[in-house]
Design a protein that fits this description.
It contains four helices and twelve strands. With 279 residues, the protein is of the alpha+beta class. The strands form two sheets. Strands 1, 4, 5, 6, 7, 8, 9, 10, 11 and 12 form a ten-stranded antiparallel beta sheet that branches. The protein starts with 7 loop residues before the first helix and ends with a helix. 22% of the residues are buried.
């Protein structure tokens, strides 16, 4: 009869291997958790330094802005400046930094067109941007300003913007800015709209050039497409109403909707103009 002995060496090896495996798994999950914590801390630090530019409020104080020629302009709260004097185009916008970090203007671009996301779904190209000659810092939670000028008589953009100013047409300005250390570059599109004797500044959208923003391009494109469809439907309704559509319900609905929209737009325009003149 054979005696069955206990192989303590094998059992010891298996126990050691099991303990090593458990330790390895614990170490792996600890490293992963540490990495997640590091990413969260890094994202929180970035948000503490991120600037976000918008137009200032109508009740923000007037800002006086000087150009190298000694030309002075005044930008009211919520407003902008667009002047064409002796062949030189002067542009300025009253801004507010709603982010939590200091914003530094780096570059800018301008276009003779309304600030339409449907017509121009993407920001301007790198070749269209111009370097910012003056250091413009805007503190978090406070107002500041942006200024730019077009002086080169051979610059086709200068000629186009000068014509737009003289004929009182909308202008689009895009600002490229960063945080205090030059990171988190962002492009903000503003629309400058003339109303009576003032210019109203309006933010259209933002692009985060380093990392994803709160809304992806697909989401924004879908929203812009929905607005386009609504606009086309409204146009068809107005056309049908003007042509005497045989469907009373459709005609009345179109008139009601368009009338409400028109009244709302007129009321907002009058309010903006009155506040702009008062500022």
């Amino acid at each position: 009869m054979l005696a069955i002995g206990t192989d303590w060496a094998t059992i010891s090896s298996l126990a050691t291997a099991g303990g090593t495996l458990v330790l390895a798994l614990a170490t792996f999950y600890a490293v992963q958790s540490g990495r997640r914590s590091t990413r969260i801390a890094e994202a929180a630090l970035q948000e503490q330094r991120r600037p976000i530019f918008t137009q200032s409020r109508f009740d923000d104080p007037m800002q006086k802005i000087n150009f190298v020629e000694g030309h002075w302009v005044k930008a009211a709260g919520g407003g902008a400046v667009a002047e064409h004097i002796d062949g030189v185009v002067y542009l300025a916008v009253s801004l507010r930094n709603v982010g939590s970090g200091i914003g530094v203007c780096q570059r800018w671009a301008v276009r003779r067109a309304p600030a339409s996301s449907r017509q121009f779904p993407r920001h301007m190209t790198d070749q269209e941007f111009r370097d910012q000659a003056r250091d413009l810092y805007i503190p978090p939670g406070d107002i500041g300003m942006w200024q730019g000028a077009l002086r080169n008589p051979h610059d086709s953009v200068r000629a186009e913007i000068a014509e737009a100013i003289d004929s009182r047409e909308p202008i689009t300005i895009e600002l490229l800015y960063s945080d205090l250390v030059g990171h988190q570059r962002t492009i903000t599109r503003l629309g400058l709209t003339p109303f009576d004797d003032v210019w109203i500044a309006t933010i259209v959208r933002h692009w985060y050039l380093e990392g994803s923003g709160p809304r992806g391009e697909q989401d924004f494109d879908a929203a812009a497409e929905a607005v386009r469809h609504d606009h086309e439907d409204a146009e068809r309704g107005r056309t049908a109403a003007a042509g005497g559509d045989d469907d009373p319900g459709r005609r009345d609905g179109a008139l009601d909707g368009d009338g409400a929209t028109a009244a709302s737009d007129d009321g907002q325009a009058q309010e903006l103009g009155a506040r702009g003149r008062a500022e």
